[in-house]
Model the fold of this input.
Amino acid sequence: MAGGQGTRLRPKTDNLPKPLLHIDGKPILEHIIEKAKLDGFSHFVLAVYYLKEMIQEYFKDGSSLGVEVKYLEETKPLGTAGALSIFDSPPEDDFIVTNGDVITEINYAELLDYHKLHNSIATMAVRRHEFHNPFGVVETSGIEITGYEEKPVLTSNINAGVYALSPVALDFLSKMEHCDMPELFEKLRVKSLNTVAYPIHEQWMDIGRLVDLDKANSNANSNQKNKVNEKN
Done:
């Protein structure tokens, strides 16, 4: 999914699509493709809209990366799932969908195996997120204090922006209509179709803000320095 306008990353995305922003000297989307290639994937379809010509010009047919790249060209923003409605030839087997701004060490092949093992129609990679409340929390019933917890830690599962889908999931999309992935999952759940969560513990970062981009590049620089020090 490489069609987003990256509004939270402006001005860097004023003249450059978010998937082409560089981390450690190469575009975010190139990192994603290279990681998936290491996991055994060779066929990629990029859903493009905003400044799509730049993405198409950079990746072309994928041969420079040793993979095959095709394109779904949106004529209007269709969301993180809606672009899947415009396949000329929809996938015949289960497949992976990832947002074009997610850098992760997740093993895409293991996600697909997990999806198949659980006979899932749609599988969402989720990551454990902790929020440390900086205040003491007072529980009340009316004006009566019923409990108190000092600076509690709230934990939840967050959507990691990586999914495995079975072809039947595409039947729940209307052609050229906007749909985000959580909406598609809800449509499937309402129909009692199997949707499951895939917990990930690997390194993961959503490059949605300028601070995220800076942090990703800082982490990459630190990793490079550590490798040099190890060699020395």
